[in-house]
């Protein structure tokens, strides 16, 4: 009993110390600031000044607000990202506590810690996950008005960034098919009816895929922001930065990065193998989160995540996200979409409903994967994996892997505290 209490106390201290470390990083990012040509900021600046183009909705709104009120676009971007991250963290913490599940895994790099650790919280990703949650929430409702809301939220998200289409449309289609199967319709008619209910979102998705932009459009977008000053700018950037110029990139352009990584080594380590092992480790941790049933302050988990449902959901959502792994090298961000969208589904949709929605193939395949992994991994090492797993937000490199792991971040912070004390 005393050993258990000591272990719990140590975990509590480490957990809250890590949360403090993340908050410290978060505040440092805010105070250090971002230049106009940094990827996170420029991604928000894409607008419709060169014509309709993918990812342009937020930039057009920002430009309109500035022209009407004179409010700094930078302040709106940073404020929106902060509020979005707080809202996402609140959703997961409240939902998990309300349903009595463990929440120790939340701050790590493979979940909510990812945007802060890899410094992409000033991007559209957190907003996309929030809109995904809103769309799933309304799709699970049985009212007639729900059709308007889930299409509205998904369409807005698609106009912000098309990547949500990959991990939201498949599960929405399954959700709607489930509802239609209750009606006396044939299977083919059920699928057509489900797709019909998603027509607005599908059309928007096709539009943003087709209107990918061009070099001329990118130039016009950047020209529309040239006379607007940003607080951390030190020089004028005449050419459109990568995030703006990226709207004109072809599919082949993205595939080049993937093909390049297929034969790449870093510090003598084969990068595809490194990512494969990282993804396997993340999958194993997330499917065994119920072993992390430690008491945090006065909160003690009362329920366990159903491993079969978690496994099947993770496998299905990974297949949905997988095109992003092929089309772009921002693998750490795709992990964020994978993990958060999977657990959002588990927390929003009743488990008995998920059992009937997800394909049987997802359950059988995940069961085989779990059986295979259990031969080589023990559930007792889940906490250890939480401590050592690390990965960058973008292209793989060993330094980023090491520095993004919990244990290294914690040790560095302790060292910095002692160094500061000794220097006084």
TrEMBL record:
Taxonomic lineage: Bacteria, Pseudomonadati, Bacteroidota, Sphingobacteriia, Sphingobacteriales
Transmembrane domains' residue ranges: 9-27, 71-93, 100-122, 148-175, 187-211, 269-287, 308-328, 334-355, 376-395, 401-422
Keyword Oxidoreductase: no
Superkingdom in the source lineage: Bacteria
Name of the protein in question: Uncharacterized protein
Keywords carried by this UniProt record: Membrane, Transmembrane, Transmembrane helix
């Amino acid at each position: 009993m005393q050993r258990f209490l000591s272990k719990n106390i140590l975990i509590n201290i480490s957990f809250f110390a890590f949360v403090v470390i993340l908050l410290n990083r978060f505040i440092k990012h805010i105070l250090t600031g971002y230049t106009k040509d940094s990827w996170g900021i420029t991604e928000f600046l894409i607008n419709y000044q060169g014509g309709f183009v993918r990812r342009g909705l937020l930039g057009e709104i920002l430009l309109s607000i500035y022209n009407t009120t004179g409010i700094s676009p930078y302040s709106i971007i940073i404020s929106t990202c902060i509020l979005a991250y707080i809202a996402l963290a609140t959703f997961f913490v409240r939902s998990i506590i309300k349903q009595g599940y463990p929440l120790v895994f939340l701050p790590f790099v493979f979940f909510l810690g990812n945007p802060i650790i890899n410094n992409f919280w000033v991007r559209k990703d957190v907003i996309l996950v929030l809109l995904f949650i809103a769309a799933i929430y309304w799709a699970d409702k049985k009212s007639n008005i729900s059709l308007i809301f889930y299409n509205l939220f998904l369409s807005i998200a698609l106009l912000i960034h098309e990547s949500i289409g990959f991990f939201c449309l498949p599960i929405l289609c399954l959700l709607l098919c489930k509802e239609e199967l209750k009606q006396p319709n044939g299977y083919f008619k059920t699928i057509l009816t489900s797709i019909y209910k998603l027509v607005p979102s599908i059309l928007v998705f096709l539009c943003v895929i087709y209107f990918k932009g061009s070099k001329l459009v990118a130039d016009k977008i950047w020209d529309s922001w040239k006379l607007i000053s940003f607080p951390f700018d030190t020089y004028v950037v005449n050419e459109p930065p990568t995030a703006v110029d990226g709207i004109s990139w072809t599919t082949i352009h993205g595939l080049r990065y993937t093909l390049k990584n297929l034969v790449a080594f870093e510090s003598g380590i084969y990068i595809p193998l490194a990512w494969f092992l990282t993804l396997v480790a993340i999958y194993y941790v997330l499917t065994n989160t119920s072993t992390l049933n430690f008491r945090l302050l006065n909160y003690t988990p009362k329920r366990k995540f159903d491993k079969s449902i978690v496994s099947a959901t993770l496998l299905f959502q990974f297949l949905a996200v997988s095109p992003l792994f092929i089309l772009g090298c921002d693998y750490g961000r795709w992990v964020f979409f994978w993990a958060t969208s999977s657990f959002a589904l588990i927390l929003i949709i009743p488990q008995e409903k998920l059992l009937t929605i997800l394909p049987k193939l997802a359950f059988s395949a995940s069961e085989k994967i779990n059986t295979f992994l259990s031969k080589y991994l023990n559930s007792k090492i889940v906490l250890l994996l939480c401590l050592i797993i690390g990965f960058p937000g973008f292209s793989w490199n060993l330094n980023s892997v090491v520095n993004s792991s919990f244990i290294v971040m914690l040790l560095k912070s302790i060292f910095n505290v002692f160094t500061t004390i000794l220097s006084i």
